């Protein structure tokens, strides 16, 4: 890892970027400034405000036109210092708004995809435990094509956790789950938050959900 | 000439076996290049891309004899590339079955690349992004996500190349001539029979062999596609 | 007048590919002389014969091969009386222009292998293409075919064999005398004695289905003095 | 012979124009069939599908002369199909430029169908379902959703067929001969020059014309694909 | 329309079907029986219970292995009477859980796709009004690729309404919308419910949403 460690702050987020999508005239262009001491923050904002775009930038999938992204003391991106860690080296667990499961792999192989890359270092999440928690044991041998909306979301969440990330980005991870499942998962996410010590960004439209998980809420847009 | 088998003369059986060898070698050896070029054309931009794209179609656009002649100029014992290859790597194409395979591979290349490129273009890049966030480096993304998803195009490209290799004749005979047991493929044999009055029944017999071989190739590829599809729709 | 009309309609000659340069020239001369235009379709004799069998709009068939001419005649598709052997040719052994090989006399048992070295003997397909069939017959007659057979490289047609020698890919080749003359990059080492192979003959005949009034006249003219001069210049041997 | 233009003889110019006409006609006329067969193979199951799939590859698998000979037997004035077509519909292929177009279309058909089929297979059926719930009947679904989404494959198939038609020679010369001004295409002309010792420069000159034509085709197709893509990524 | 009209009941739902997905051994198989006098009903149930499958069957995208589907007196499917109206003749406005926008059309063309099929008969929803309500005017000329999750959902809703359906099926149509937008759309859906008189099935995980829109709640699974 050739990311420079900023001595100043070793937890929290220091994000100050400007994003652009589409062409200059009619496209989307917005600056984001999120500075927080907290380890787990929520990002809320209207539909189209740029929440997903922000997460993409942090994950290394969208290059900001200027600014920098520092998470937990590690500089992921800094335009001026010409730092731009490629996505696969950022070790970010990203639960996409659209699950993005691999259609050529079954559920088990989807879950294990990131595990293989992660190696044995700091294994925090184990397959059996995750499968149990998300209630997807009966799906393991299935392909992804017939999964229901909520099932896809759970597999995507499991896959992200199993890649043993150092940062978690969650883009409406529970939006398709029923209340029971949601009530089961939220405490687990709270436990992940406590025990893993991972920085997390949580995007959701539900104030109640946000309040239960995040220490700090940022509204954008 | 020895005894034949199942109504085929020994020479014909040799030609059939040779055709299989040539077609298989042409397909297998050109596949990596086909994938590489297909990926370059599908996923990158570079100056002169349109030119590369056009040049790739050359073996299709020119009469096969011209392609064969160009191969002769380049890859024969006297040709600039052929000389280097044989002196430094011991690879000889001239008048060898390897030359027939090279000619077939070149003739089938545009077909193979087109199919592979189409399939790679159809792969959802968002899945490649997801793989990257899961820690997969570009190589793993390519071999673990892009290529498996482009699988139908890969197989289609391989079958097209194999079929073309079975039927290829003009470039092959111009480049490596027609040497029994070495470069006389099924197609050359059929072509030869076409030149002889009254040999139509022989043409038909050998043509049926070519059809049977291509049937096997098509069948195998359909089976491989179905198998992958079944695997993902459980 | 309708006759005039017929005259301005071009004559269509289906001719063996190896006749291209000489026949193009002869056709131009004929048009200048008579006003009758001639257009040709050059392809393999086999393809042309099959097309005529299927009703191709050919007025004359000019074959490199007696077999395919016979094929059509047996099917009563030719005007028998119009069939003539127009040209003869020789069969020669050639080497690349800059080859060290010296001219030689071809006698029974003449061993060509020393001249070949590691290389191959280029000729046309011996099983099917006329030039190849003549070459094989000649080498068999000389008794050297068994020793040479494993060393031959058979081209699609006689011009492919010629090209292999001209390019130096093959140290020796067997082609027609007319081909050797047309290609400055080769040298003739020997001419096969006429008795080693069947006479090499290019026959012409009027196609029965032709309704062109000038067909017979052109067939006749091809055997005349003016045409003979042209063909001779291209290395053929016009037949009396 | 008349005067030529830009260093090309009148006969050569005629051959070039003829090649363009033949290639364009072959591509345009076979496209509807290519789409239909591509769709059938991609989206339906029927008994004998594997056989149809294999037979489609025939023109690729057999030496072109054999395909040309089969066309000659079927579509000549005497041939069973040719007679019916000419008597009842006034369509004549034998020894006409239309025959050259037919031969090219047949030779290019496997390439075209493969590309179209691949693209149709890649179309997300859930979008077709969505169109149906919006009241679109199967035709509107096909022309409004499936076909536009398979656009890149359609263009690729068309370019492959066009390129193949430019280079096709063996089947054409066997079927409709090589009559100057009527069936002598660019490829036949190049082949003719290849038969002439010392005509290499002529071959090169005409080959460059073929390359230029195919460049135009590739360029046009890339432009059309880009245009559609740009339209959807605004 | 060759659908037989059952004289017995002219409003409400009479659904009694058995659905199967995947193979017989490991696949999904469940019977659904929904009988309701009400015109607007909600279907709730755990993730994977079969809510989406049920809507697919009603829309004509999934053929039940047995049973019948009668909505507002019209028989859409009856195995025994061999009635199976094809999807495009059911005139159902279906907002899919995964928006399924047409990627080759811009937003305007997506919205108009169904309108063209509907003809001029009974035009209840007009483009301008829908665009205004959903707040998607600035997106009309855009392609669908860059749309945010909520934007896609709104376009999908607009497209379904503009196809002038006789039945509305909504599969978590507001799950990706923020609270503000949701609070704006719910009253509109209530108004659609009142004024259009259309039968509606509403799938959602949010009890509050469901209570505001549906007259009758069915739990499945
Ligand atoms: N290529 C593009 N051209 C123009 N605008 C674009 C382009 N790509 C994205 N946008 C716009 O950028 C904005 C931000 O999108 P983003 O997906 O980040 O929103 P979001 O906050 O996640 O919304 P939601 O809550 O609905 O998911 C949206 O309005 C979207 O339409
Ligand atoms: N081909 C298949 N093989 C086996 N099971 C399948 C298949 N297709 C769908 N299923 C299963 O059918 C069940 C019902 O799916 P459906 O999409 O209807 O659920 P849902 O109630 O809409 O769930 P959600 O609220 O998560 O969207 C799911 O458990 C799904 O995994
Ligand atoms: O002119 Mo030939 O047919 O090659 O001997
Ligand atoms: Mg979003
Ligand atoms: Mg669902």
From TrEMBL, chains A, E:
Against InterPro entries, the record matches this protein to: AAA+_ATPase (IPR003593), ABC_transporter-like_ATP-bd (IPR003439), ABC_transporter-like_CS (IPR017871), Molybdenum_import_ModC (IPR050334), P-loop_NTPase (IPR027417)
Keywords, comma-separated and alphabetical = ATP-binding, Nucleotide-binding
Listed Pfam families: ABC_tran (PF00005)
Listed name of the protein:
ABC transporter, ATP-binding protein
* A single GO molecular function term of this UniProt record: ATP binding
- Xref: Gene3D superfamilies: P-loop containing nucleotide triphosphate hydrolases
Do you know which SUPFAM superfamilies this protein is assigned to? Answer: P-loop containing nucleoside triphosphate hydrolases
Ranges for domain ABC transporter: 12-220
Q: Does the keyword Glycoprotein apply?
A: no
Automatic annotation (TrEMBL), chains B, D:
One GO term of the cellular component aspect? plasma membrane
Query: Coiled coil: which residue ranges?
Result: none
Gene Ontology molecular function: molybdate ion transmembrane transporter activity
Superkingdom as given in the UniProt entry: Bacteria
Give the protein's biological function.
Part of the binding-protein-dependent transport system for molybdenum; probably responsible for the translocation of the substrate across the membrane.
The record gives the membrane topology as: Multi-pass membrane protein
One Pfam family cited in the UniProt record for this chain: BPD_transp_1
- Give the subcellular location: Cell inner membrane; Cell membrane
Alphabetical keyword list: Cell inner membrane, Cell membrane, Membrane, Molybdenum, Transmembrane, Transmembrane helix, Transport
Recorded protein name is Molybdenum transport system permease
Principal subcellular localization? membrane
Q: Give the transmembrane ranges.
A: 22-42, 54-77, 97-120, 141-166, 203-225
| Family named by the database record | Belongs to the binding-protein-dependent transport system permease family. CysTW subfamily.
């Amino acid at each position: 890892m050739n990311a420079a460690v900023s001595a100043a702050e070793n937890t929290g987020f220091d994000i100050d970027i400007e994003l652009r999508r589409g062409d200059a005239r009619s496209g989307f262009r917005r600056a984001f400034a999120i500075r927080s001491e907290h380890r787990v923050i929520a990002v809320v904002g209207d539909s189209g405000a740029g929440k997903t775009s922000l997460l993409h930038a942090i994950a290394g999938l969208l290059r900001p036109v200027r600014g920098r992204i520092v998470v937990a003391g590690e500089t992921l991106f800094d335009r001026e210092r010409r730092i731009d860690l490629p996505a696969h080296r950022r070790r970010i667990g990203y639960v996409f708004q659209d699950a993005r499961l691999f259609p050529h792999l079954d559920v088990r192989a989807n879950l294990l995809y990131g595990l293989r890359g992660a190696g044995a270092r700091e294994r925090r999440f184990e397959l059996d435990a995750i499968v149990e928690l998300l209630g997807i044991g009966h799906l393991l041998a299935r392909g992804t094509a017939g999964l229901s909306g909520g099932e896809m979301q759970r597999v995507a969440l499991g896959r992200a956790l199993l890649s043993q990330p150092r940062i978690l980005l969650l883009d409406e991870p529970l939006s398709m789950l029923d209340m029971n499942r949601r009530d089961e998962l939220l405490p687990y996410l709270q436990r992940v938050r406590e025990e893993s010590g991972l920085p997390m960004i949580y995007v959701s439209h539900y104030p109640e959900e946000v309040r239960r998980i995040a220490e700090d809420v940022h509204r954008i847009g | 000439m020895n005894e034949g088998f199942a109504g085929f003369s020994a020479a014909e059986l040799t030609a059939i076996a040779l055709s299989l060898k040539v077609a298989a070698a042409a397909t297998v050896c050109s596949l990596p290049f086909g994938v590489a070029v297909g990926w370059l054309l599908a996923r990158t931009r570079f100056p002169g891309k349109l030119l590369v794209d056009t040049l790739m179609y050359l073996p299709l656009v020119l009469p096969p004899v011209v392609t064969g002649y160009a191969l002769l100029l380049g890859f024969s014992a006297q040709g600039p590339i052929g000389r280097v290859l044989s002196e430094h790597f011991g690879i000889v194409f001239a008048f060898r079955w390897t030359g027939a395979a090279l000619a077939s591979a070149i003739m089938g290349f545009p077909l193979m690349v087109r199919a592979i490129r189409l399939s790679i273009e159809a792969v959802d890049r968002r899945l490649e992004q997801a793989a990257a966030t899961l820690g997969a480096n570009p190589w793993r993304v390519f071999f673990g996500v892009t290529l498996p998803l482009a699988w139908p195009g890969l197989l289609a490209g391989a079958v097209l190349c194999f079929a073309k290799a079975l039927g290829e004749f003009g470039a092959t005979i111009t480049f490596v001539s027609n040497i029994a047991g070495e470069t006389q493929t099924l197609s050359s044999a059929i072509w030869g029979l076409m030149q002889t009055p009254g040999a139509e029944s022989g043409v038909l017999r050998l043509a049926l062999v070519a059809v049977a071989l291509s049937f096997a190739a098509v069948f195998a590829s359909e089976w491989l596609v179905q198998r992958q599809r079944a695997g993902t729709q459980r | 007048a309708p006759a005039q009309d017929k005259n301005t309609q071009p004559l269509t000659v289906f001719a063996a590919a190896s006749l291209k340069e000489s026949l193009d020239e002869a056709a131009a001369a004929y048009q200048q002389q008579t006003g009758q235009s001639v257009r040709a379709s050059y392809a393999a004799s086999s393809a042309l014969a099959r097309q005529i069998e299927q009703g191709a709009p050919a007025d004359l068939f000019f074959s490199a091969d007696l077999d395919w001419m016979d094929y059509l005649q047996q099917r009563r598709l030719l005007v028998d009386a119009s069939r003539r052997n127009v040209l003869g040719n020789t069969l020669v052994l050639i080497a690349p222009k800059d080859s060290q090989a010296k001219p030689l006399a071809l006698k029974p048992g003449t061993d060509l292998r020393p001249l070949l070295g590691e290389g191959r003997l280029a000729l046309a397909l011996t099983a099917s293409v006329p030039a190849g069939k003549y070459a094989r017959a000649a080498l068999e007659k000389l008794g050297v075919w068994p020793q040479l057979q494993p060393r031959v490289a058979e081209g699609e047609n006689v011009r492919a064999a010629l090209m292999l020698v001209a390019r130096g890919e093959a140290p020796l080749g067997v082609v027609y005398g007319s081909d050797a003359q047309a290609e400055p990059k080769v040298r003739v080492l020997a001419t096969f004695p006429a008795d080693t192979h069947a006479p090499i003959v290019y026959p012409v005949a009027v196609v029965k289905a032709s309704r062109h009034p000038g067909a017979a006249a052109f067939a006749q003219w091809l055997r005349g003095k003016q045409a003979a001069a042209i063909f001779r210049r291209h290395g053929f041997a016009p037949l009396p």
